[in-house]
Amino acid sequence: MLNLSTLDQQTLLPGTKGLALTQPLQQKDIAQQHWNVLNADTSFPVAVLKQSALQHNLQWMKKFCDSMQVVLAPHGKTTMSPQLFDMQLKNGAWGITLATVNQALVAHRFGVRRVLLANQLISRSDTQAVLALMQADPAFEFFALTDSLDGVQRMAEQVQAAGLDRPLPLLVELGFVGGRTGCRNRDEALAVARAIHQSPYLQLAGIEGYEGLLVGKHRDQDLIAVRAFINDLITLTQQADNEGLFAGEQILLSAGGSAYFDLVGRGFEQTMQLSRPVTAILRSGCYVTHDHGFYHHLLQEMQTRESVVKADNLRPALEVWSIVQSRPEPDLAILMMGKRDASYDIDLPFPVKTHRPGDKSQPCDLPAGCKIEKMNDQHAYLRLPRDSAICASLQVGDLVACGISHPCTTFDKWPVILVVDDDYQVQSAVNTFF
Amino acid sequence: MLNLSTLDQQTLLPGTKGLALTQPLQQKDIAQQHWNVLNADTSFPVAVLKQSALQHNLQWMKKFCDSMQVVLAPHGKTTMSPQLFDMQLKNGAWGITLATVNQALVAHRFGVRRVLLANQLISRSDTQAVLALMQADPAFEFFALTDSLDGVQRMAEQVQAAGLDRPLPLLVELGFVGGRTGCRNRDEALAVARAIHQSPYLQLAGIEGYEGLLVGKHRDQDLIAVRAFINDLITLTQQADNEGLFAGEQILLSAGGSAYFDLVGRGFEQTMQLSRPVTAILRSGCYVTHDHGFYHHLLQEMQTRESVVKADNLRPALEVWSIVQSRPEPDLAILMMGKRDASYDIDLPFPVKTHRPGDKSQPCDLPAGCKIEKMNDQHAYLRLPRDSAICASLQVGDLVACGISHPCTTFDKWPVILVVDDDYQVQSAVNTFF
What we know:
The structure is a homodimer.
Chain A: H1 5-8, E1 11-12, E2 25-26, E3 46-50, H2 51-68, E4 71-72, H3 82-90, E5 96-98, H4 101-109, E6 114-117, H5 124-136, E7 141-146, H6 149-162, E8 168-174, H7 186-198, E9 202-209, H8 219-242, E10 251-255, H9 261-268, E11 278-282, H10 294-303, H11 307-310, E12 318-329, E13 332-335, E14 350-355, E15 364-365, E16 371-375, E17 380-383, H12 389-393, E18 399-403, H13 408-411, E19 416-420, E20 426-431
Parallel strand pairs in A: 3-19, 4-11, 5-6, 6-7, 7-8, 8-9, 9-10, 10-11
Antiparallel strand pairs in A: 1-2, 3-12, 12-13, 12-18, 13-17, 14-15, 14-18, 16-17, 19-20
Protein name (chains A, B): Amino acid deaminase
Family (chains A, B): Belongs to the DSD1 family.
InterPro entries (chains A, B): Ala_racemase_N, D-amino_acid_metab_enzyme, D-ser_dehydrat-like_dom, D-ser_dehydrat-like_sf, PLP-binding_barrel
């Protein structure tokens, strides 16, 4: 669906992270190298995506959205990978959500036809760049957010200055006190919606909110707050429609990060009497790879409240494999992996498996108590349980696989990520553009 | 000195972070765009390097090394930028230190002729890649570390298997209890040195240590530990030389991160009676851009103990400029800048200046009390002092400049970084390869 041929045909040079190249290699020839991570044919560290888990997650989310009658505009900032965008679009995604104009330009370059910018157009140069793209490509659908009268005025002026031949479609962002962007109440949001309606350069396309920041210490309270916020979004949509503020054939109603998208889906099932059809859009991005930490726990919670999730769950697809460089103290192993290679913002990586290159067996699970206790830029400190078998056996040159917490901050460390089968045989690669 | 023409001639595409491109642009034509950050001609966020501070820091370090009679192999993992490597080599750097084989391959691709790998060669594929390069390019000087007999044996086998026509030069790494890699005492290190000496495939080129991890809560104790560690390195060098273990025309003696390089330099001044000349090598990497946080404080401390530093100090060269997207609550501004754009591992970014695009005046310093209190992937939460003038005046579309703490984790977020003059006029760009 997307134009990926430039990626297949690109030449990967020696020095590309994760690959151990001595000669330039066309990316499309990766499978023919017959690399296997377990045989240490790659460089270390190396980030891998497990093909079977990816496919599972793509289908899982399609089924989830179908069952809730919502569409998906997955947040592309998670991966910034055209190949993954392509898989998501082929699996029925309505469009791709993005965070910055430059991310939108990357997506457009590879053929994404519909972008929801989950941010505002503020800077003059960025705004001009995206308006120029819309003017040059009438088939490119682009939606942005706004949360202030100032913002509406800036955008109207810039659309006028650019001479765009159609109004710019906007979603008003509703937020909450203590949150990030977004009007702090429905009255403010309605005032912004009216200002959009009144401008010939703008068009009110929908209402948007982001409930994913409501992750506090008391989940019961979080859930109450999320449900109340979703109800607020629905009430705001109804109010704006009662005033006849929406333009376009349908009304977009969007929320949903990767933590509570079940509550968003259930909330959006409420019957609304509106003047035109509603397209309810989830924007979850992390589902595609899932993780071993932050989202793993949130999805386990989701399993307790949602039957669609209970039957089956997302699977972690992203791992970073490293190699033991040193065993300098009895219960310490130093790995070739650091802040340059794996997420460290919510949790440090989780060591899950080990393997000795050349062994014919499958990787062993690491026992509980193995822990990455620190990372420097290029090193990780793996602490092993004293007197454990692994403490006695792990040696220099052994491989250690880590799961990660929060995929967004691992993706941005890898221009090329290898896609592997269940035996860690390298099948292909995906690229990222950060 | 390096081959940078491919970088000058490369085409930057729309979507490149920091640039607001509507058309492809050859990198060499950046200056002719007459972009000024203060005029909001770039995209936001944008990372900039201040040319005058860079030049100052390069000359400062040259003077420092000359005064201490040490050479510099700056750690290239900080920037991974060929243009900055080029500036460092033109300023007299002895070589470039790197952390991984892939980093070394990148450096070699751009023409770096001497690499000190501040790590071990462990993985088979990575080792084969670097040995192939040494075999193909006899003029390429490459040194690696080792801290174990296992490691020595692995390397000897791999050099033998690769058929390298010369022995691989190694430095034995001395560490300390509670540290990272490195032999935990001189006896272990001497055993490793002897094993290298006995292998026909290896050559003992020197002794190495890294004191930069000794940053604890009590600086007085840190300084005592650093001085003792430097003395240990010197004693080990003397012992290895007494046993006739070194090969080559000189003995390399290397330590020195970016925190205590004055103590390393002073320590290395000690007279040693050795069989051949000693080359004392600092590996500091962060000096080239310095920072507004972690290293700023460490260099302020260095000023209290070292006259060379007292007279003049390093200057922060790296800033990330962002734009106010929303003022959703009275003392809160949401910036277009997040974990994708600026370091967050030691400190969150420091908001230092603000500017309203179009204003003819210089940027204003932000008052004390302005603080980035949180970052998401793509957003920063700037808290403003209540009742301050800036709290009343800062508006959507205003620019905010942030200093950073720990340059390594900002460089890795920017494939292209703009170089600006003191008026924030864009002069050129440097590239990074992570």
